[in-house]
Amino acid sequence: MATPSDGAVLLFWGVVRNQNEGREVNGLEYEAYAEMAEAKLRGIVTEAAQRWGVGEIAVVHRVGKLNVGEASVGIAVAAPHREDAYEASRYVIEELKRRVPIWKREHYLDGPSAWLGGAVPEPEVPA
Question: What is the DSSP string of 56-71?
Fold first, then answer.
């Protein structure tokens, strides 16, 4: 990831936690509109790289069933300065959650599972 001009390499590792909003969670699953999700994610990475002048950004988001403690998303950012790496990483995760068509279904210990709110893709406008 890092080049000789990078002074920071930041890794964000999102994992499945065992609770959400007071309910015990024993796992979850993600579904995605893969083609659109990949395109939206590439756009977000490009925006972050340009906005903060960082070098490499790598993002992986899993789909399918995951257990508590398993990684769901990983983001790595290399940048000349740590502040830019932190800002770019935060931008990527927040925009991913807001704009990328990935949906999460939590499985609870005390009852049925539930789909949580996810991104609804904005229509593409032809050029």
Answer: -EEEEE--EEE-TT-E
Give the C-alpha separation, 60 to 50, whole Å. 20
Task: Please state, in angstroms and rounded to a whole number, the distance separating the CA atoms of residues 72 and 82.
Answer: 24
pTM of the model: 0.89
Q: Which two tokens stand for residue 78?
A: 């290399």
Ordered structural domains, the chain, with CATH: 8-15+33-101 (3.90.1170.40)
What are 90-109's pLDDT values in tens digits?
A: 999 999 999 999 999 999 99
Backbone angles phi, psi at 19, to 5 degrees: -155, 155
pLDDT score at 104: 95
